[in-house]
Amino acid sequence: MEFTHFNEQNKPTMVDVSPKEPTLRIALAQAVVKLSKQAYVAVKEGRVKKGDVLAVASVAGIMGAKQTPHLIPMCHPLNIEQINIDFELNDENCTIKVISTAKITAKTGVEMESLCACSIAALTIYDMCKSIDKSIEITDIYLLKKSGGKSGEFERKT
Question: Would the pTM of this model clear 0.90, i.e. be above it?
Answer without folding.
Answer: yes
